[in-house]
Design goal:
The complex is a heterodimer. Chain A contains no helices and 11 strands. By secondary structure, chain A is mainly beta. In chain A, strand 6 and strand 7 form a beta hairpin. The radius of gyration of chain A is 13 Å and the shape is globular. The mean pLDDT of chain A is 92. By secondary structure, chain B is mainly β. Helix content of chain B is 0%, strand content 50%. Chain B has no helices and 11 strands. In chain B, the strands form 2 sheets. In chain B, strands 2, 4, 5, 6, 9, 10 and 11 form a 7-stranded mixed sheet that branches. The chains are: A mainly beta, B mainly beta. At the A-B interface, strand 5 and strand 10 of A face strand 5 and strand 10 of B.
Chain lengths: 108, 115
């Protein structure tokens, strides 16, 4: 079983749609969690941290369920510029483990 | 945040040769890391570059194949030695400007193709 698993997609959605990405992790001792965004042929960039109480940043909402070892990212009112690969990242003992990424394509 | 300059941005190399990738940061950082991203795959940590001591390698990566230098707090190099086509990948330098392993910032990557 992979340490961090994501649905690879691709998710093809129209502009304005709401889309949700899921991620599970295997190590219950994982300490902190993040979503990174990676554009085609570019380096990953931090999108947002994920807190136990859930957190929101504009159109983006991240949720964490430690009991189920599950992380989610919700994007509302999708924009064309949201098209990218979204990486679920878990801090395990000081080491960042990356999921394989979920590809999102937002169409006009 | 941190501004990271990584070079070369891409290279095409012959089997059996070596390539050294450079990573320069605009500020002193404690933690520097080297990742690999193979085609269609996610990022895999190769090693942590330690200033003044030997790098700490992850399982599956060895110093003879991926020697790393870290002469100061703003610079590191990764060498891919005795390359084979299986080494074709994107190599990424990353730093954490803070004290933990959170909020990594990445260089733009080096796309390596081995013929």
């Amino acid at each position: 079983r992979k340490e961090v698993e994501q649905d690879p997609g691709p998710f093809n959605v129209p502009e304005g749609a709401t889309v949700a990405f899921n991620c599970t992790y295997s190590n219950s001792a994982s300490q902190s969690f993040f979503w990174y965004r990676q554009d085609c042929r570019k380096e990953p960039k931090l999108l947002m941290s994920v807190y136990s109480s859930g957190n929101e940043d504009g159109r983006f909402t991240a949720q964490l369920n430690r009991a189920s070892q599950y992380i989610s990212l919700l994007i509302r009112d999708s924009k064309l510029s949201d098209s990218a690969t979204y990486l679920c990242v878990v801090n395990q003992g000081g080491k960042l483990i990356f999921g394989q990424g979920t590809e999102l394509s937002v169409k006009p | 945040s941190a501004v990271i300059s990584q070079k070369p941005s891409r290279d095409i190399c012959q089997r059996g040769t070596s390539l050294t990738i450079q990573c320069q940061v605009d500020s002193q950082v404690t933690m520097m890391f080297w990742y690999r991203q193979q085609p269609g795959q996610s990022l895999t940590l190769i090693a942590t570059a330690n200033q003044g001591s030997e790098a700490t390698y992850e399982s599956g990566f060895v110093i003879d194949k991926f020697p790393i230098s870290r002469p100061n707090l703003t610079f590191s190099t990764l060498t891919v030695s005795n390359m084979s086509p299986e080494d074709s990948s994107i190599y990424l330098c990353s730093v954490n400007p803070g004290t933990g392993y959170e909020k990594l910032f990445f260089g733009s990557g080096t796309q390596l193709s081995v013929l």
